[in-house]
Design brief:
The complex is a heteropentamer, with 2 copies of chain A, 2 copies of chain B and 1 copy of chain C. Chain A is mainly alpha-helical. Chain A is built from 14 helices and 1 strand, in the order βαααααααααααααα. Chain A has a single domain, classed as MetI-like fold. The longest helix of chain C has 14 residues. Chain C is elongated and about 60 Å long. Chain C starts with 10 loop residues before the first strand and ends in a 6-residue tail after the last helix. At the A-D interface, helix 1, helix 3, helix 4, helix 5 and helix 6 of A face helix 1, helix 3, helix 4, helix 5 and helix 6 of D. Strand 4 of chain B pairs antiparallel with strand 1 of chain D, so a sheet runs across the interface. The complex binds adenosine-5'-triphosphate (ATP) (2 copies) and magnesium ion (2 copies). Chains B, E: One of its GO terms (molecular function) is ATP binding. Chains B, E: It holds the Pfam family ABC_tran. Chains B, E: It comes from Nocardioides marmoriginsengisoli.
Chain lengths: 262, 348, 233, 262, 348
């Protein structure tokens, strides 16, 4: 087959790339080596493990969806408009990344908690967030939102706006431009951001335990389960961590088909 | 007055004002970097001028003093930019259908319109490809189809005939002639034939200033700016078609080759030929040139290393040596001849 | 006067201690440094189970103070204890409520009342197993809205008013100051949590380590600990 | 001034964007409201706080540099070459994101610890990694590497390789193409990735406390200090978290000048 | 033989083989989508052919049967693609200096070379701008400068004169003539004048197949393919310059307008003019046309609605009506005239 070819990468580049891959993969191998394979199946199919896994998948999917819904508009506003204070806002949006998750959880508690900033409002509306699955989703969204915003904003800037102006001059309303031109063009960046968000939500621990608590089937996600198991049964914890890894890899590989370069 | 344009763009050194009547086609000519594309960007709303005012029909598109600045998609102006910029993720057909879809046509209608336009630019068989899979000239044709399919109030074309091969150029030029006939258009081109055939008026810009303006034939026949002089070189005669030749108002006949659709007997036509092709004789010669105009020399004007001989409506470019040999002076009676093969006849 | 290390060379004593000992041990460390010029005490505060796995993976520890006997047993099982572990403090549970005690909790049985949002520790962690023990010996069935991973998480929920009651250690209530109210209850005596301490086997400062353990077990140490609310073992 | 303009964003987009901004900023406000301003200065200028902050800045800078050094080659290999197993590798590289940080720390311990995979090798070479500042840098690198790789890979795909082939046809060696064309073109994406990595490293807690321990001045970074302060003095913890946030915002704003769109 | 090319690219329907001698310039002609750019991509190494073999001097660039496939940067081939693709983050000067820098020249040398090339394409004053700040035509000139500055063993130019204004085209054509004179080049163009003036040989491709090949003048004078016929239309006479006219081997004189650098007396020159411009007389006329060739008609050939009259080396296109009126048949003695202004004379 005829094939267009790229400029090619310098050969020396493969050395640090391999080093990097090893750095990420070796610890994984180390974990696999620690797994007590004899009892593996029992460990991971216990009721509490299955409940935690199911909860994690549901909440991570929900929080990823939420991230896309509010993160895409944020990235667009940051990348395609200019307004005073934009630079500060852009940095502030990154905060949940910097905040140790436990502090992030506290901050959420101070905001949505009964005596928090919005506590009174929520009480009037008879909405109870604490100790509910919604709290888990909120905590996960809070910590994973910056991932989507930052990586999508980078893609939007790299892609530029030439096609958008062409589309507008053909009479497309901004909404049409967004739907038919902008989003399809930055799809790789959007997918990357969504994958990052999903992965971060799957691994989220600190903010969840602080803000949502830990009750089996309601708020105890897989990381919380792993953490608990670690106290009583480190082997089970390792086995569960492996499950988390495998599930995440599968979801990510499915979510992220190798997209042919345009 | 359909389009009214005044704008300055300081960092590109542009300061231009002009008007285009409804249904009229204006050709923008000028050297590279003159500011032609900049003018189109301002009209399309992709560039906000420092000061200026652009009014299309009754709608103010931009008016810096009134702080009006309509969004591009509300302007009903379609721009064919200098680069094709086809949307890489849409098929060729979807690219062309994009304008109709955006203006509210149904999916089926838009696809039908896209196919029709693709056919007119000779790219019918490319509909299902992605823009990354077509050649440069094919991309240009598709971009033309996309701009035309948008059916805007005002059409802005930046070098629509660039990158096209000699086989398709005449056909596309005919298509554009038909399409532009009753549409308000601003056309940027480097090709004098396009300016002449497609445009009613021309505007010559140089270094951001208008240096010449007028009806196409007039500007090109009697250029005043250096750039227009370069472009120029065509004689233009208006007449009536008689089946195999045109008759001028003074009764003389013009034979030539019909370009484009065959005119019907009685149609108004224009005959064009280059002053270079006009020969000057003192007596009527016998030979293949079938167009002979008996005239008197009005003017002799140096034009580089040539002499432009003006006689009535006609110009002939001859070498200084010929002028000397024939002893041409003002008032000399002369026979101007031009071969029929040199004369292109177009239906108006 | 245990000044056998009066050398000119600065020595560092590394103490691995449960995170709940942060305040008291930091204070004791300062006292130890004052008593032993040229010695610097550094602390590694973390969860007890973290500390044990770090020591087994070769962390440079001289002293290990655990918040429960289970993790100390793990260290002993790995044969890394330098001397026989000794209990230096104990802790019992106490009820906490948001300031003002909105649900008017008075007894342990009130925790099972309908409409009281209760948070306790998960059974896997020491404070949770203690809560379970107390509940079963008191014959009360607790229905918590959340089983937290640590006392701090319980405290945070109660302090924020999110939960109306929680079960934490006496020392935690004391440290939390007036952000919560504490209610002592008699049933707590059925689950006493013990804090053992030992030197670590491969310590390069075995003498200093033993001296530190003595400081903790001695009157100075006990004074500091009881000021923070710890009981004697 | 004349200004090129973009197609513009649909108006409704600002609603979710504002919602998103509020969602991120409100918790921050809630935390600020909780700070005990009277003692704020004392709290944050204590010796231990300053040591922790200095350590955090140093280690985060080092790990960001390490991420760039090994992450850029990895992103390039993933974006510009195809090889069997690439899809799986791409998912595996994301693992540290999914792994709860504590499990990540355990994995690192199982790899670089005395009884770990490389323990013997390192012992022979007389290299002690665990419980040193190096361990902190490794832990931070492990958790923040995916950020750089994923967001850079997205940018590389969005940018495409047309300029690279032009450069190669002008005689530029792959190394030259990389240095003079590829990297400058994806600079916005690279910066975004580096900022994400830096922020993640600044906030890193779980892997650090597990793998590196919490020794003042050596391995006790700001998040660890915050965790400890929370044991004895929750006010101090909140004040410190605020410091972390402010420092991070400053570093990010400085690192990430508003880049004019090309 | 310097460049040896054989390749098939199935999904673009290409199957082409040709050779280019060292120092020779080959023009690739053909309709849009014929495969011209594809050929250049294969040579430059941007597209791997399904089967094929490209050898430059002694180096095999690709050979699918031997599994040789040299990386683009090792080929010493510079490609001016159909789109300018200037590096957006580098200044115009740095863009042009990129090739020399990549081939190991020092920074100062490379900048000097860049400035020199920018000057030659008439873009000297743009050096400090970013590519985003220049006009379409300016970008095209800069891209030409960048390709030329790379000083490769083989130069591939895809429509180098696209988007240029009429004022700069002749000058740039002259520049290219000088540059390409002793350089191995493959040039894609839609302009017959470029093919004629810049190329030694032409290759006409249509639908991925070679349909015609030969020396430029020959192919264009006697086209056999439909596409070449469209392109064609030029008479070519070789002669020696005598100061104000050229003398042909048979002693007859040719007057015309010198295009490009003035030839010295005794230089070899070529005179070109279109068959359209040639008039046929039965007797020698007196008039401004100063070039009169006495010949005998060899051939009469229908060409669309015209008749191509061949007489010796010359062709004249006249209408069927003229042929009838003058009663032209094979063997008729005729005077073929062409105005001096219609004749372009180039130094060879
Ligand atoms: N990436 C691609 N994938 C598949 N087909 C392609 C691709 N690029 C071009 N083609 C097709 O291959 C054929 C040859 O294209 P090429 O670009 O070589 O034409 P060209 O002769 O350069 O035409 P032009 O004068 O328009 O530039 C065309 O039919 C085109 O549609
Ligand atoms: N983005 C820009 N910023 C600043 N100057 C620009 C920009 N784009 C173009 N220019 C400059 O503005 C002037 C007008 O450019 P414009 O593109 O309008 O020229 P043009 O008449 O379309 O030329 P061409 O025939 O080459 O397309 C030129 O001198 C050009 O260098
Ligand atoms: Mg332009
Ligand atoms: Mg092409």
């Amino acid at each position: 087959m005829s094939r267009t070819r790229t400029a090619g990468l310098p050969g020396w580049l493969y050395a640090p790339a391999a080093l990097g891959a090893a750095f990420v993969l070796l610890p994984l191998v180390a974990i696999v080596a620690k797994v007590d394979w004899a009892n593996f199946l029992d460990l991971i199919t216990s009721e509490s493990s299955r409940a935690a896994l199911a909860l994690s998948l549901r909440t991570s999917a929900a929080s990823t969806a939420l991230c896309v819904l509010i993160g895409v508009p944020m990235a667009l506003v940051l990348a395609r408009t200019t307004f005073p204070g934009q630079r500060i806002l852009r940095s502030l949006v990154l905060l949940p990344l910097v905040l140790p998750p436990v502090v992030g959880g506290l901050a959420l508690l101070y905001t949505f908690g009964r005596r928090g900033l919005l506590g009174h409002t929520l009480e009037v509306l008879d909405i109870r967030i604490a100790f509910s699955t919604i709290a888990v989703v909120l905590a996960q969204t809070f910590v994973s939102l910056p991932f989507l915003v930052v990586s999508l904003e980078g893609s939007l800037r790299t892609a530029g706006d030439r096609y958008e102006t062409v589309a507008a001059s053909l009479g497309a309303r901004p909404t049409t431009v967004l739907r038919r031109i902008t989003l399809p063009l930055v799809l790789p960046g959007l997918l990357a951001g969504a994958v990052l968000s999903f992965a971060r939500a799957m691994g989220e621990f600190g903010a969840t335990i602080t803000f949502a608590g830990s009750l089996q089937g309601v708020t105890r996600t897989l990381p919380l389960e792993i953490y608990l198991q670690r106290e009583s049964d480190p082997d089970a914890a390792v086995a569960l961590a492996l499950v988390l890894v495998v599930v995440a890899v599968l979801v990510i590989a499915w979510l992220r088909p190798e997209r042919a370069a345009r | 007055m359909s389009l009214e344009f005044t704008a300055t763009v300081a960092d590109r050194g542009l300061e231009v004002a002009f008007e285009v009547a409804t249904g009229e086609t204006l050709a923008l000519l000028g050297p590279n970097g003159a500011g032609k594309s900049t003018v189109l960007s301002v009209i399309a709303g992709l560039l906000r001028p420092d000061t200026g005012r652009v009014v299309l029909d009754d709608r103010t598109l931009v008016a810096t003093d009134e702080r009006v600045d309509l969004a591009p998609h509300l302007r009903e102006v379609a721009l064919l930019a200098q680069e094709p910029l086809l949307f890489p993720h849409l098929s060729v057909r979807e690219n062309v259908a994009f304008g109709p879809r955006s203006r509210g046509r149904s999916r089926t209608e838009a696809r039908a319109a896209a196919d029709a336009w693709l056919d007119r630019v000779g790219a019918a068989e490319l509909g299902d490809r992605k823009p990354g899979e077509v050649s440069g000239g094919q991309a240009q044709r598709i971009a033309v189809a996309r701009a035309l399919a948008a059916e805007p109030h005002l059409l802005l074309l930046d070098e629509p005939m660039a990158a096209l091969d000699v086989a398709v150029t005449p056909a596309l030029r005919q298509t554009l002639r038909q399409v532009l006939a009753d549409r308000t258009t601003v056309l940027v081109t480097h090709d004098v034939l396009d300016a002449l055939l497609l445009a009613d008026r021309v505007l010559v810009i140089d270094e951001g200033r208008v240096v010449e303006e007028g009806r196409s034939g007039e500007v090109l026949a009697q250029p005043r700016s250096a750039f227009a002089a370069r472009l120029a070189g065509l004689n233009l005669l208006h007449g009536t078609w008689r089946g195999d030749h045109a008759v001028l108002p003074d009764g003389s006949q013009v034979h030539g080759i019909v370009a484009g659709p065959e005119p019907a007997v009685g149609d108004l036509v224009v005959a064009t030929f280059r002053p270079h092709a006009v020969a000057v004789y003192l007596e009527r010669p016998v030979g293949s040139p079938r167009n002979v105009f008996a005239t008197t020399i009005d003017d002799l004007e140096p034009l580089g290393d040539l002499i432009r001989v003006r006689a009535g409506q006609l110009s002939a470019d001859v070498t200084a040596h010929s002028v000397a040999a024939l002893d041409l002076v003002l008032g000399t009676a002369a026979q101007l001849t031009v071969k029929a093969t040199e004369v292109a006849i177009y239906r108006l | 006067g245990s000044d056998d290390s009066g050398s000119t060379k600065e020595k560092t004593l590394t103490v691995f201690a449960a995170a709940s000992l942060t305040g008291t041990f930091t204070e004791l460390g300062k006292k130890f440094e004052a008593d032993h010029p040229g010695v610097k005490v550094t602390f590694n505060f973390a969860g007890s189970s973290d500390l044990v796995s770090q020591i087994t993976e070769g962390a440079p520890a001289d002293v290990f103070a655990s918040a429960d006997t289970k993790n100390m047993d793990k260290l002993a099982a790995a044969d890394l204890d330098g001397q026989e572990p000794e209990n230096f403090a104990s802790n019992t549970l106490e009820i906490v409520t948001p300031p003002g005690n909105p649900e008017k909790i008075a007894t342990f049985a009130d925790l099972a009342r309908k409409g009281v949002d209760l948070v306790i520790c998960a059974p896997e962690v020491p404070c949770g197993s203690a809560a379970r023990t107390v509940a079963s010996s008191a014959g009360v069935t607790l229905k918590p809205v959340s089983e937290e991973q640590s006392v701090k998480d319980v405290l945070a929920k109660v302090a924020a008013g999110e939960a109306e009651a929680g079960l934490v250690y006496v020392t935690d209530v004391k440290a939390a100051g007036d952000t919560v109210d504490g209610i002592v209850f008699p049933e707590s005596s059925s689950a006493v949590n013990l804090y053992p301490i030992t030197t670590v086997k491969d310590s390069k400062n075995a003498d200093l380590a033993a001296a530190f353990v003595q400081l903790v077990l001695g009157s100075v140490g006990q004074g500091v600990l009881s000021a923070a609310g710890f009981a004697r073992p």
